[in-house]
Amino acid sequence: MEENGIFQENEMSTAGAGATAGKKPLDVAALVLGIVAIVAAAFSPLVSYVCGIIGLVFAIKHRKEKRTTVALILCIVGLIAGVVSNVLAARMVMDAIAPTLDSAA
Fold first, then answer.
1. Is the CB of residue 68 less than 8 Å from the CB of residue 27?
2. CA 16 to each of CA 11, 44, 97: distance values in angstroms, whole numbers, following the listed order
3. Of residues 55 and 105, which shows the higher confidence score?
4. Are 26 and 62 spatial neighbours (Cβ–Cβ below 8 Å)?
5. Which of 3, 24, 27, 74 has the fewest CB atoms within 10 Å distance of its CB?
6. Three-state secondary structure along the chain?
7. Closest to 59 in 3D by CA, of 32, 26, 81, 25
């Protein structure tokens, strides 16, 4: 039963897990920061920018060793959501100010 390779693959995967265990937190951190960046875009674009940029750096560092793109995509989406949130906030402020500017003239 040991000759079919099932046990050998498990032994290889546990040996490989110890070698990459130090690099996995970068991937998890980038993923979490990407999610936080997307959620924070609705409330505070500044937090979205900070989390998105830090997560992007972590994702790029981890991408050099392993080809994962989920964290990278989430961080980019978080940054874009922060920009869109800033644009919408600026437009709402300008719409709120516009009636007062018209009445002053």
1. yes
2. 9, 40, 60
3. 55
4. yes
5. 3
6. CHHHCHHHHHHHHHHHHHHHCCCHHHHHHHHHHHHHHHHHCCCCHHHHHHHHHHHHHHHHHHHHHCCCCHHHHHHHHHHHHHHHHHHHHHHHHHHHHHHHHHHHC
7. 26
Give 93 or 66, the one with higher predicted confidence. Answer: 93
CA 69 to chain centre: 10
pLDDT, tens only, 7-39: 454 444 444 444 445 557 778 888 888 888 888
| DSSP assigned state of 5 | S
Q: How many CB atoms neighbour CB 64 within 10 A? A: 8
Q: What is the pLDDT of residue 86?
A: 87
Q: What percent of the chain has pLDDT over 90?
A: 0
Rounded distance, CA 55 to CA 36, Å? 10
Reduced to 3 states, what is the DSSP secondary structure of residue 42?
coil
Percentages (nearest 5) of helix, strand, coil residues in the chain: 85, 0, 15
